[in-house]
Amino acid sequence: MDPATWLPFLHQLADRADEIALRFFRANGLRVEEKPDSSPVTEADRAIETMARAWVGERHPTLGICGEEQGERVGAGDARLIIDPIDGTRNFVRGIPVFASLLAIEAAGEVIAGVVSAPALHARWHAARGHGAFGHGRRIHVSGVRELARASLFHGNLGPGEGAPGRGGPPPGILALIRCVERTRGFGDFYQHMLVAEGGGEIAIDPVMHPWDIAAVQVIVEEAGGRATTLDGERSIYGGSLVTSNGPMHQAVLDLLG
What we know:
The chain is α+β, with helices and mostly antiparallel strands. It is 30% helix and 27% strand. It folds into 2 domains: 3-135, Fructose-1,6-Bisphosphatase, Chain A, domain 1, CATH 3.30.540; 148-257, 3-Layer(aba) Sandwich (D-Maltodextrin-Binding Protein, domain 2). The protein has an 8-stranded mixed β-sheet with strand order 4-3-5-6-7-8-9-10, sandwiched between helices. Strands 12-11-13-15-14 form a 5-stranded mixed β-sheet, sandwiched between helices. Helix 1 (7-24) runs antiparallel to helix 2 and helix 5 packs parallel to helix 6.
């Protein structure tokens, strides 16, 4: 099956996710709970994933699902939907408009299509293997910068962080990398990687990631001409971290992060 045939389904799903997210965003009395890993989950996260599972059941009942909030449901074939209902939940809770629904199709272990939809930013990006990456209604591509001294570096939290002990903070070489680049910005989450994909910067770093955080991002960055690996250089959505770049400086970045 051509990977692009999944895009209409993913866009329809994103439309419905956007409606739910905006209904709850900045709403009075938003219910927020703390998960075992100390990260927040809202009623919006749960409502979006519940909707997605019902939608899959109606439109593609043989499709498996892997979701952040409700786990994995094995399908009849080798394809599954990977969903993060709201990436950037802390932003969402605090009324910051930098959040998105991340939707991807994985088939036979490869992510073949993805959509990142950020309704409060009025932005959406998508890609399918072999068909390029798109955002804001146009084809997007990573930048042509080839020297660290001219590069923009994006990052998330530089404090102690979250997750397992020793894994939440920045990589040990982050200060060395910061000293090498032209400028830094702390966007975090999906947004920094979409900026890399559309040429707004060259490097983005997330030291703690899950498959649902990475899947849609990976295919969009790669189809835009960039690279997406773990901190160890592995091209995998299961490696627990993510570094995206425009490509030429990728190994140098990994070496500095150490």
